[in-house]
Amino acid sequence: MTDRYCVFGHPVAHSRSPFIHAAFAEQTADTIEYTAIEAPRDDFPGAWRRFTASGGRGANVTVPFKEEAFRLCDTLSERARRAGAVNTLILGVDGQTHGDTTDGIGLVRDLERHGVRLVGARILVLGAGGAVRGILEPLLAGHPASLLVANRTAAKAEALATDFGDLGEISGGGFDRVEGPFDLVINGTSASLAGDLPPLPDGLFAAGATAHDMMYGAEPTVFLRWASERGARTVDGLGMLVEQAAESFFQWRGVRPDTAPVLERLRQGL
Ligand code: ATR
User: Fold this and answer.
1) Most CB atoms closer than 10 Å: which of 25, 31, 32, 221?
2) Which ipTM did the prediction report?
3) CATH code matching the domain that covers 3-101+240-269, chosen among 1.10.10.10, 3.40.50.10860, 3.90.190.20, 3.40.800.20
4) What is the CATH number of domain 104-236?
5) 86: buried, middle or exposed (CB in 10 Å: 19+, 13-18, 0-12)?
6) What is the pTM of this model?
7) What is the pLDDT of residues 85-108, one digit of tens each?
8) What is the dihedral of CA 215, 64, 198, 205, to 10 degrees?
9) Which residues are catalytic?
């Protein structure tokens, strides 16, 4: 039987994951089936059970099920445990469900691809929601000199700094705490969706700094436009999307696909 994989979401029709994983499978000559499944909002565990009963070996999980997926796992990777969320489910040969989150490692791989060095870097992360919680462990594992989490609701950033404080130099607060220069600024807020920009001071970027937005689209986000005007190099979230998918593919199939050609094809289709 063909190994089946899917992405669960609600809605999920516009997910690019089926395209990405089909491209990976073509490249590695793996015969797999990968579909998008709209799980019912009130029964994610049932959707996963039904999927595995019909030959499902693993899944990606997107909005709004990442926390629910986390709760149903029998075992978890350390980074998923820290994130409190799961974007990759793996069915073990023993029938147990293992959960991992590959978003953060996807971000770090994409930054590496762009030549960004984390060691010794001064990093600013904007936002303190689920998306940011998922990237802090891999960022701190890169040994930055400092990592400041700044958020509209300061208490949420402070809580993250406490939760991840044993992993490195991390602090948290409101946007009023932000004082440059930084070598790397990552926008993990959903402000771009509303065309908003967090209030940021001038002098945010050090020479040679990189600005990354976890969002992507046909046009640069408001944040990336603002950063570009101030001399920063800009990177959008499309590369992170492909890299997190590649890491999930690796977890399932034991083969690492080449992400560059897939990213190029996706970019053309935006
Ligand atoms: P996600 O899963 O994408 O992280 P989330 O958990 O709802 O979604 O978090 C959204 C993040 O974007 C939060 O940090 C939120 O700030 P608050 O914690 O103060 O709500 C931030 N955010 C959303 N809209 C924003 C805006 N217009 N300006 C600044 N920050 C915004």
Assistant:
1) 221
2) 0.97
3) 3.40.50.10860
4) 3.40.50.720
5) buried
6) 0.95
7) 999 999 999 999 999 999 999 999
8) -50
9) 66
